[in-house]
Write a structure and sequence with these properties.
With 462 residues, this protein is an all-alpha fold. 71% of the residues lie in helices and 0% in strands. Helix 6 runs antiparallel to helix 7. The chain is globular.
């Protein structure tokens, strides 16, 4: 009977992971890659629409610019979403924020679905901006929600599921974008609007699952709701140890309000955490990996892959993630080497930066600083993604086969910093991580943190 209860509770945690992921980072990966398949159709539609309005076609360089804007409005929306995520996480809670976030997906799907009938490429741009806002919110709140809901021995694995759903979304976006499915010249509005499906799945499943126990106890001061959420996630047995850990963190946060994003840069006690967040968050996007998904067809075309095979090669990029790539020379076999290097580059990205960087804000910061840290991390990520996405086609034109040489330097610098300065968090409670970081930030002091007080915080403000 006890084994059956454990199995049921394990399933509830798994369902929580899936419900948060399918409408969360899955959407990020899906909308990152789904735009690649209809590249030529959207460019032609933009040109035709402009010609119908003005009587003259757009010059080639302006077509390229309009296309790069459509791609880059996605990370720009992500930046807005990242800035919105902190206030949402505090005022609505982690779970409700993920649910409300689907408003942006529904609005974007309507714009995409009717864009061709309306003869408006501006609707595509606005839709890309809105799905970017959705991704920006979910990329910050989902790891926070899952990291706060998982037991400490599973926290790393559960938080890493965000990267798994991102990769799954990328692959699904590439598969659905095949010409045999929704990647044809007539179906591309439906392809872009198909992001509505995972949003609907989250809206149907997530309301049945619990809120973050940490949020309920530390932010809301609701012990009964916290205990009910823990029982739903863990079962009724042996919750004393975890409750004790939560109470310790609650005591450490007494008398404190939620940090504002700019305050993170002013406190010496957060110096190591903020530096790690800025360096690794920037390196994750400046390595150029995510731009491969949006511009994969152009990269493979440059590498010499036959046109008919490009869409299948693109699916390969979503199935891998690691190492760095320098593309091609004049030998015939180098087009296959280029493809293998891109696969290896993406494979390495998924094993390392994509999985680990997303949970840094959850593990390195306490409950009072966590929402603000997620805002800083998200804002950095989306700004860098916007800049790289906007400049990628022009860098590719300028450097050709040496496209990834600048990104190689970023990868090396990020690896060096990780090896020398990032502390290990595996198997540690949030309080233990906080104490270790305090020792690193104040190496000459023996005493612990000094932010304790007698006042119990019932809610927090950003």
């Amino acid at each position: 009977m006890r084994a059956l209860r454990r199995l049921i509770q394990g399933r509830i945690l798994l369902l929580t992971i899936c419900a948060a992921g399918i409408g969360g980072t899955f959407q990020f990966g899906y909308n990152l890659s789904v735009i690649n398949a209809p590249t030529s159709y959207i460019q032609a539609f933009t040109n035709e629409t402009w010609q119908a309005r003005t009587g003259e076609p757009l010059p080639d360089h302006l077509v390229l610019l309009m296309w790069s804007l459509i791609v880059s409005l996605y990370p720009l929306g992500g930046l807005f979403g990242a800035l919105l995520a902190g206030p949402l996480a505090i005022t609505l809670g982690r779970k409700k924020s993920l649910l409300v976030n689907n408003i942006f997906v529904v609005s974007a799907a309507i714009l995409f679905g009717f864009s061709r009938k309306a003869g408006s490429f501006e609707m595509i741009m606005l839709g890309r901006l809105l799905v970017g806002v959705n991704a920006g919110v979910s990329m910050n709140i989902q790891p926070m929600y899952l990291g706060e809901s998982a037991p400490k021995e599973l926290r790393g694995a559960v938080a890493m599921s965000s990267a798994i759903f991102t990769a799954l979304g990328i692959v699904m976006g590439q598969v659905v974008g095949l010409r045999e499915l929704l990647g044809g010249p007539q179906a591309w509005p439906l392809l872009l609007a198909s992001s509505l499906v995972p949003g609907a799945l989250q809206l149907a499943s997530l309301p049945l699952l619990p809120e973050s126990p940490r949020y309920l106890l530390i932010d809301c001061g609701d012990t009964e709701a916290c205990l009910a959420a823990l029982r739903q996630l863990r079962g009724s047995g042996d919750l004393a140890g975890e409750l004790e850990e939560l109470e310790e963190e609650r005591a450490a946060c007494q008398g404190c309000r939620a940090r504002r994003p700019w305050e993170l840069f002013q406190h010496r006690a957060l110096r190591r955490q903020v530096t790690s967040l800025v360096v690794l968050g920037s390196a994750m996007e400046l390595c150029g990996n995510d731009s491969v998904y949006a511009y994969a067809s152009s990269v493979f075309r440059k590498a010499g892959v036959p046109e008919a095979k490009i869409q299948y090669a693109i699916i390969g990029t979503g199935s891998c993630e690691l190492l760095t790539a320098v593309v091609s020379s004049s030998f015939p076999w180098t087009l296959y080497l280029a493809m293998a290097c891109i696969f290896a580059f993406i494979l390495s990205f998924g094993i390392g930066p994509a999985g680990v960087t997303g949970i840094l804000a959850t593990e390195l910061f306490d409950q009072m600083a966590r929402p603000a840290a997620c805002m800083v991390c998200g804002a950095l990520m989306w700004i860098m993604l916007f800049l790289v996405g906007l400049g990628f086609p022009f860098i590719m034109e300028a450097l050709s086969h040496y496209l990834y040489v600048p990104f190689l330097g970023v990868c090396v610098c990020g690896a060096i910093y990780t090896g020398l300065f990032l502390p290990e968090t595996k198997g540690k409670t949030f309080q233990e991580i906080s104490e270790e970081l305090h020792r690193l930030n104040f190496p000459r002091r023996a005493q612990g943190p000094t932010w304790r007080s007698l006042e119990v915080i019932q809610s927090t403000e950003l």
